[in-house]
Amino acid sequence: xxxxxxxxxxxxxxxxxxxxxxxxxxxxxxxxxxxxxxxxxxxxxxxxxxxxxxxxxxxxxxxxxxxxxxxxxxxxxxxxxxxxxxxxxxxxxxxxxxxxxxxxxxxxxxxxxxxxxxxxxxx
Length: 123
Prior knowledge:
Layout: E1 5-7, E2 13-15, E3 20-24, E4 29-31, H1 35-43, E5 52-57, E6 64-70, E7 76-82, E8 87-93, H2 96-108
Helix pairs in contact: 1-2
């Protein structure tokens, strides 16, 4: 199982995602996965015992999630759901590279209460 380790304000090691985690059916987990990590997890999917990956915030009642599942006829079904934005999209794709990139972009736009707000300044 893959997991991230971080240092807290006092330099002590802590475990767990800062914002979200990706979990696969076979028990693999990656905290705050990068595009490359998502690519690896999706590449490891098969049609028998590791058929899906779910990415969602590490909180009790997550308001959004994304999942990628293997389709019987080949390719992948991608589900994106965000209740705060009334979004629910189901698509299919065959390119793991495109799926990982699109999910990374989509997740970057999600709301994370613990994440500092981004500020845009005008020059």
